[in-house]
C-alpha cells in the first residue's frame, strides 16, 4: 500500500492523463489529501467548484470500486457517460436500468471491473446485503449530502438511511459532498454520517464576479422596465429569469417578446421534446432569455450566462444561491437581480404552512426577507448564511454602492454578545432583548436572569432597535440563530473576537422614527 504522499503524486498524474487538468483546485486537494489520510470528510464546494473530481480521482487511485450515491438520475447518467467517454469504467444502477443491464452491471461490480458505481439512495438499502457485501469497495461518496438533513432545502427520506453504510462498513472511507449547506444542515450531515467536524473542507462560497442587486415591492410594469434596462446592458448575452409559476413564466416571455426580446418560457408543463429544444437553443445562443420555473437549470452547463433575475421572491436562500450561481460560471462579470415582493411572501408563507415542516420553512422564508430588506452588504448576509465569515463589505452589491449611515457598534455588540454568553448560548432573541433592556417577565425571573451582570445594560436602546441590531449581527456573521424550535442564539468565532475586544464592528444606524418625524416637522415649520 502506498503512503499518502505517493498516493497524491499518483493522483496528480491521473488528473492529467484522464481529465487533462494540470492541477487540483485548493479545495479539491484538501479533500483528496483528507481521503488519502484515511479521514472521513465533508466537502462543501459551491456549484462549479469541481466536486466530482474529489471522489473520481481517489476512485481511480485506489484498488476496488467507489460507490457514489446520487439523487438525480439525469446527472448520474451525464456523469457516467462522461467517465465512459474518458475511458473510465463506470456504471449506474437505478430505476431506469433494465433487468438485463442491471444483471450485467452487478456481475461486473462483483468481478471488480468497475472503478465507479453510481447508486440511487433507494437502492442502497437493498444492495447492502446483496451487492455491496460481495464487492471490494474503495470509497463511499455521498453526493448532494444536504438531502440527508431535514434542515436542508431538499430533504429525502431515503438519504436518512445512509447512516447504515457507516455502521455496516466502518472501515471504508467516506466523503460527503454538497454545494448548499448552512450551519445547521452541516452539523446534521456530520452527526448522521459520523464525520468529525474538523474533517470539513469548506471552499469559499463567494462568487466575486456576480453583482448582487435587490429591488423591493416594484409594480409589474416597473419590473418589466428594470428587466429591459438590464437587457440593454446585456445585448445578445444570455440570461435566465426565474418565475414562481408556469403562468408567470409564460406571461413574462410574451411581454419580453412584445418588446423585441428573444425570450421563451420553460417549465415542467411542457412536452419533453419541447423542453429539450428550448435547452438546446439556449445553449447554442439561439434563444437569449429563458423565463423559467425552478425546473430549469439542473445540469445546465452554460458557462457564459451573463445575468440571472428572480422575477419573484425565492422560497429559501439555498435555492436562491444555487440559481444565481448559474450566472458567470466562466468567472466573467455577471449581474443578478432579485425582485422581492410582499405579495409573494404571503403566498410562499401559505405554501410553507401547507408543507410538512411549517416552522422550518417559515424561518427559511424569513431569512430571504432579511436578505432583501436589511441594510447590510448582501454578500456578507449570503456568506454568513452559509457559515462563512466575510469580514468586509463587498463593494459589488446595491447596498455597498449606496450604503446606509454607519456607526461603531462594537460596544453595543459586546453588550448583546455578553448577554448571549452569560445565558450559555441557549436563549432566543426576545429573551436576550429582555435581559439587555432590564425587563422582568416571568421567564426572566424564573431563570434568575435578572441577577446577571448584563441585566439592564442596554436600557437606553429601545426594544425595536435591539431587535434590529441583533438581526444585523446575525447577518454580519457575529451571531448565529438556530433552526431548532427554541431558535437560540450562539456566538461565532468572529463574534468571539468582537466580544473579547480584538475586532471592531460597524452597524447600520437605525433611525429613531419618532425623533426623525418630529425633527422633520420642526424643520418644515
Ligand atoms: P460541481 O459538481 O462542484 O458543480 P463539477 O465537478 O461539475 O462541479 O466541475 C465544474 C467544472 O470545473 C467542470 O467543467 C470541470 O471540468 C471543471 N474542473 C473541475 N476540476 C478542475 C481542475 N482541477 N482544473 C480545471 N477544471 C476543473
Ligand atoms: Zn456588498
Helix content: 40-55%
- Using the CA coordinates, give the radius of gyration: 25 Å
Structural class: alpha/beta
- What number is the mean pLDDT? 91
Count the E strands: 17
Name the shape in a single word: globular
Largest sheet: 7 strands, parallel
Could you give the distance between the termini? Answer: 87 Å
Enzyme class: isomerase
Cofactor: Mg(2+); Zn(2+)
Protein name: DNA helicase RecQ
Catalytic activity: Couples ATP hydrolysis with the unwinding of duplex DNA by translocating in the 3'-5' direction
How would you characterize the overall build of this protein?
- The chain has helices spanning about 5-20, 25-35, 50-60, 75-85, 100-110, 120-135, 165-170, 185-190, 220-235, 245-260, 270-285, 315-325, 340-355, 360-375, 380-385, 400, 410-420, 430-435, 440-445, 465-475, 495-500, 515-525; strands spanning about 40-45, 65-70, 90-95, 115-120, 135-140, 175-180, 200, 210-215, 240, 265, 290, 305-310, 335-340, 405-410, 480, 490, 505-510.
- It contains 22 helices and 17 strands.
- The protein has a 7-stranded parallel beta sheet with strand order 3-4-2-5-6-1-7, sandwiched between helices. The chain has a 6-stranded parallel beta sheet with strand order 8-13-12-9-11-10, sandwiched between helices. Strands 14-17 form a two-stranded antiparallel ribbon.
- About 45% of the residues lie in helices and about 15% in strands.
- It is α/β, with parallel strands linked by helices.
- The protein starts with a helix and ends with a helix.
- Zinc ion binds near residues 377, 394 and 397.
Amino acid at each position: 500500500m502506498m503512503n499518502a504522499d505517493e498516493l497524491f503524486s499518483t493522483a496528480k498524474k491521473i488528473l492529467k492523463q484522464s481529465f487533462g487538468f494540470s492541477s487540483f483546485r485548493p479545495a479539491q486537494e484538501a479533500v483528496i489529501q483528507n481521503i488519502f489520510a484515511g479521514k472521513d470528510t465533508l466537502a462543501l464546494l459551491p456549484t462549479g467548484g469541481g466536486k466530482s473530481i474529489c471522489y473520481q480521482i481517489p476512485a481511480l487511485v485506489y484498488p476496488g470500486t467507489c460507490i457514489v450515491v446520487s439523487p438525480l438520475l439525469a446527472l448520474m447518467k451525464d456523469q457516467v457517460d462522461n467517465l465512459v467517454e474518458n475511458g473510465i469504467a463506470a456504471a449506474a444502477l437505478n430505476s431506469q436500468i433494465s433487468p438485463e443491464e442491471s444483471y450485467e452491471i452487478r456481475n461486473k461490480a462483483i468481478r471488480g471491473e468497475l472503478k465507479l458505481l453510481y447508486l440511487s439512495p433507494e437502492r442502497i438499502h437493498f444492495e447492502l446485503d446483496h451487492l455491496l457485501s460481495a464487492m471490494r469497495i474503495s470509497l463511499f461518496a455521498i453526493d448532494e449530502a444536504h438531502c440527508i438533513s431535514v434542515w436542508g432545502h431538499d430533504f429525502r427520506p431515503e438519504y436518512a438511511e445512509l447512516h447504515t453504510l457507516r455502521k455496516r462498513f466502518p472501515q471504508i472511507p467516506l466523503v460527503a459532498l454538497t454545494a448548499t449547506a448552512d450551519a445547521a444542515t452541516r452539523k446534521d450531515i456530520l452527526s448522521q454520517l459520523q464525520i468529525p467536524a474538523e474533517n470539513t473542507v469548506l471552499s469559499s462560497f463567494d462568487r466575486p464576479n456576480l453583482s448582487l442587486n435587490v429591488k423591493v415591492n416594484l409594480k409589474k410594469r416597473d419590473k418589466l422596465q428594470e428587466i429591459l434596462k438590464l437587457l440593454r446592458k446585456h445585448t445578445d448575452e444570455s440570461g435566465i429569469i426565474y418565475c414562481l409559476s408556469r403562468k408567470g413564466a409564460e406571461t413574462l416571455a410574451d411581454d419580453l417578446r412584445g418588446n423585441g426580446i428573444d425570450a421563451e418560457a420553460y417549465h415542467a408543463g411542457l412536452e419533453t421534446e419541447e423542453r429539450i429544444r428550448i435547452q438546446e437553443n439556449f445553449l447554442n445562443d439561439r434563444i437569449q432569455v429563458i423565463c423559467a420555473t425552478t425546473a430549469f437549470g439542473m445540469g445546465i452547463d452554460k458557462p457564459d450566462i451573463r445575468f440571472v433575475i428572480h422575477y419573484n421572491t425565492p422560497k429559501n436562500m439555498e435555492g436562491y444561491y444555487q440559481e444565481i450561481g448559474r450566472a458567470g460560471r466562466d468567472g466573467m462579470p455577471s449581474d443578478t437581480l432579485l425582485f422581492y415582493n410582499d405579495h409573494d411572501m404571503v403566498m410562499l408563507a401559505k405554501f410553507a404552512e401547507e408543507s410538512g415542516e411549517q416552522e422550518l420553512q417559515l424561518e427559511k422564508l424569513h431569512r430571504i426577507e432579511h436578505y432583501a430588506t436589511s441594510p447590510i452588504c448582501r454578500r456578507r448576509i449570503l456568506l454568513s448564511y452559509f457559515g462563512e465569515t466575510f469580514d468586509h463589505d463587498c463593494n459589488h452589491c446595491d447596498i455597498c454602492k449606496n450604503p446606509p449611515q454607519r456607526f461603531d457598534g462594537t460596544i453595543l455588540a459586546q453588550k448583546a454578545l455578553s448577554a448571549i454568553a452569560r445565558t450559555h448560548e441557549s436563549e432566543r432573541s426576545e429573551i436576550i432583548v429582555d435581559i439587555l433592556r432590564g425587563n422582568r417577565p416571568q421567564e426572566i425571573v424564573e431563570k434568575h436572569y435578572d441577577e446577571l451582570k448584563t441585566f439592564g445594560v442596554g436600557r437606553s436602546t429601545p426594544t425595536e432597535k435591539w431587535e434590529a441590531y441583533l438581526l444585523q449581527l446575525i447577518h454580519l456573521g457575529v451571531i448565529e440563530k438556530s433552526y431548532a424550535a427554541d431558535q437560540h442564539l450562539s456566538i461565532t468565532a468572529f463574534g468571539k473576537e468582537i466580544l473579547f475586544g480584538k475586532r471592531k464592528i460597524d452597524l447600520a444606524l437605525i433611525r429613531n422614527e419618532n425623533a426623525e418625524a418630529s425633527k422633520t416637522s420642526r424643520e418644515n415649520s
